[in-house]
Amino acid sequence: MSSEGATTLFVSSDSYDAVIVIRVAGELDYDCVPVFQQELSRALDRDTGPPELLVLDLAGLTFCDSSGLAGLLWGMRRSRETGTRMVLAGASSALLHMMRITGLLPYFETAASAVEAMGRPGTAADTAADRAPGPAWPGSGRVEVDVQADDRPGPGGGPDLDQVAQLVDQPEAPAAQ
């Protein structure tokens, strides 16, 4: 959580034919997961059908708690339901470590950058631009959630990671014909 007591999440997205890239910057925590899920739903439920590839560019993510991890799991499950391949790109070593120690990393496809996830050969300049956080894409938006410390859930709040892991282990929905 940021030092002012407010949680800030920046979410922007862009579409490249059958690929959607969602850039996430800031803090993915209990307060911001609903905004994150809304953007994922918008990408997966678009009028032209779900994308073939959904890249979550996490290079600008500065914090992720168990609720954020639950949001990533929710996104992975939703992408599977729609037949969309989802790749986490640019995840920090701290996030990858958290996913590894919780046993969830094998369930996700990862890439060093969004450029790599899209299968495009990238130069060092492309990769640096690809990792730049902030709402620099057309149609991007900025979302700020201001929550006072008293509004945050206590130790009993937030998701149960055992329940979240069960979501991953449930059989996938049959693919649409």
Would you mind describing this structure in some detail?
Residues 123-177 are annotated as: Disordered. Residues 9-121 form the STAS domain. This is Anti-sigma factor antagonist. Belongs to the anti-sigma-factor antagonist family. One of its GO terms (molecular function) is anti-sigma factor antagonist activity. It is a single chain. This protein is α/β, with parallel strands linked by helices and 177 residues long. The protein has a domain at 10-121 and 130-135: STAS domain (Transcription Regulator spoIIAA), CATH 3.30.750.24. It contains six helices and six strands. The protein has helices at residues 33-44, 66-81, 93-101, 114-117, 124-130, 161-169, and strands at 7-16, 19-28, 53-64, 85-89, 109-111, 141-145. Strands 5-4-3-2-1-6 form a six-stranded mixed sheet. β2 (19-28), α1 (33-44) and β3 form a beta-alpha-beta unit. α1 packs parallel to α2 and α2 runs parallel beside α6. The protein is globular, with a radius of gyration of 16 Å. The termini are far apart.
CATH architectural category of one domain: 2-Layer Sandwich
User: Which stretches are poorly predicted, pLDDT < 50 over at least 5 residues?
Assistant: 122-161, 167-177
- Gap between N and C termini, in Å? 44 Å
Spatially, the strands of the biggest sheet line up as 5-4-3-2-1-6
The biggest beta sheet reads:
6 strands, mixed
| DSSP E strands, number | 6
**How large is the count of helical segments?**
6
Please state the structural category. alpha/beta
Radius of gyration: 16 Å
Q: In CATH's first tier, which class of one domain applies?
A: Alpha Beta
Beta-strand content estimate: 25-35%
Could you please say which CATH topology of one domain applies here? Transcription Regulator spoIIAA
| Dominant shape | globular
Query: CATH homologous superfamily name of one domain?
Result: STAS domain
What is the N-to-C succession of helices and strands? Answer: EEHEHEHEHHEH
How helical, in percent, are the residues? 25-40%
Average pLDDT level: 75
GO molecular function: anti-sigma factor antagonist activity
Pfam families: STAS
Family: Belongs to the anti-sigma-factor antagonist family.
Organism: Streptosporangium sandarakinum
